[in-house]
């Protein structure tokens, strides 16, 4: 039995199969990249607010300190009841504000320069 002749037929088929698979993969990747540019799908992605805060919590209130501004314009510290009277704003690094729980949780909301708001942290009442 001639081993070289037995394996020679199968070795010839490997190269065209791999070539076809690579060509199809490259075509699919190119179509996806061109499609995202043409349809503008990359533009619709939003940006999340990102900021660093430090929280000191007691039984009645919480003190929130802005440690790193990240990409936010300001931070709103507010009760989850939504009243404007229970809201405080942090704009500078190192600035601290205290807010009472008043029976509700406290949320730290980051405001991006375009006005988009994202909840960064929720401080649960004790």
Helix-strand topology string = HEEEEEEE
User: Roughly what fraction of the amino acids lie in strands?
Assistant: 25-35%
Cα radius of gyration in angstroms:
29 Å
**Count of strand segments:** 7
Question: What would the average pLDDT be, to the nearest integer?
Answer: 81
Distance between the termini: 84 Å
The number of helices is 1
Largest sheet: 4 strands, antiparallel
The shape is: elongated
The helicity comes to: 25-40%
| Structural class assignment | alpha+beta
Order of strands side by side in the largest beta sheet? 4-3-6-7
Transmembrane segments: 20-41
Protein name: Type IV pilin N-terminal domain-containing protein
Keywords: Membrane, Transmembrane, Transmembrane helix
Domain Archaeal Type IV pilin N-terminal: 12-88
How are the secondary structure elements laid out?
Layout: H1 3-39, E1 52-57, E2 61-68, E3 74-79, E4 87-90, E5 96-100, E6 106-111, E7 117-123
Antiparallel strand pairs: 1-2, 2-5, 3-4, 3-6, 6-7
Characterise the protein shown here.
The chain has 126 residues and is an alpha+beta fold. The protein has one helix at residues 3-39, and strands at residues 52-57, 61-68, 74-79, 87-90, 96-100, 106-111, 117-123. The protein has one helix and seven strands, in the order αβββββββ. The strands form two sheets. Strands 4-3-6-7 form a four-stranded antiparallel sheet, with no helix packed on it. The chain has a three-stranded antiparallel sheet with strand order 1-2-5, with no helix packed on it. The radius of gyration is 29 Å and the shape is elongated. The mean pLDDT is 81.
